[in-house]
Write a structure and sequence with these properties.
This protein has 2 domains: 10-83, no CATH class; 91-350, Lipovitellin-phosvitin complex, beta-sheet shell regions. 24% of the residues lie in helices and 33% in strands. It is built from 9 helices and 14 strands. By secondary structure, it is of the alpha+beta class. Helix 5 runs parallel beside helix 7.
Length: 354
Amino acid sequence: MYHLKETETSEYQKHRTYKIRKDDTLQSVARELGIDAQELRRYHNLYCQIPDLIEADFKSHLEFVILSAEKANIKTNDEINNKLKKVNFGNDYRLPFLPEGLDENYKVKYTSEVGDEIDVTEMNISVKWLAVDKNKYHLIQINRSTDIYINGKVPDTIMSELAVKTAEVLYPLKIVVDGFGKWMDIYNYSEIEDRWGRIKGELLDYYEGEVVETYIEHTENALENAETLLASIRSDYFLRTFFNGIHMSYTADYSSKNVVSFPLEKEEESIFEIQQKIAPYLDDNDFIKVKQEGFYVDTSNNILYEYAPWKGNYEAVYFLNSDSYCIEKMNLQCRIEYDEPIRIAIQIELLSKV
């Protein structure tokens, strides 16, 4: 909103002005008003008092910026505020989960750091909604591309090839997701079990030796029953981050405290106390932004034995489609300072449709 304040000096009474808000900078105001920052500074400095000159940025005491009356296309504060679109919540500040019709492909990147060793895995994963039952449990299909890159290259060792090949038995994977967007269970165990017979035959035809026998034994142990398979893939990074249960109820200040577990180490859960906060307005891309931040909870016996507790942190940012409330992109990273620091970073982003 433009202000003409009677108590201001004559220079401010004669001109159109912009009232500076908390955290405003020369660049941010110029961007919001739709004019060049240098032009904004130049015009203000022509008419302001000497103490109010803008140098590199606004001075702490400055309340108003003088604007050119000739710039008919300058946006008012009201226009700026009108651009902000509120996030639509359900009852009790609940963030809805509406995956019906979801059928998207995502680019996925995992970065694992243990001490000085860094490994990067990249792949494409598709997510397709199939059905919903009367209790609002959704059936969703996950598929993974066969093109997987490890440290920028197609796997070129027998162990890497076997790891990729045996993992193919899972896909397409059908999972059950609750009304909060949290992954709960595997739906198509029998299909996966039948698929293993074909893949096992291919492995035995192409590979030989103790290594392939070890991978076959490991896979068959995981596929012993539906419970062992579920336990085996509990550490799947995509399932744990994409279906993280963020569609929950928030307080009036758009936040919520929670405890989350994450498989920073395979088949071992790390506990973090976090604050989950949702931006009340859509961002510049009309996305809903949800952020999780927190710290590691050391549940070991370190304190009991008078060792310093391990420390770590957790941070995740989700950007959701404002119509479907489904993920457009997200970033997650968590870290624990063990004897050797361990860090996992996960990036998921919607692939553009051609």
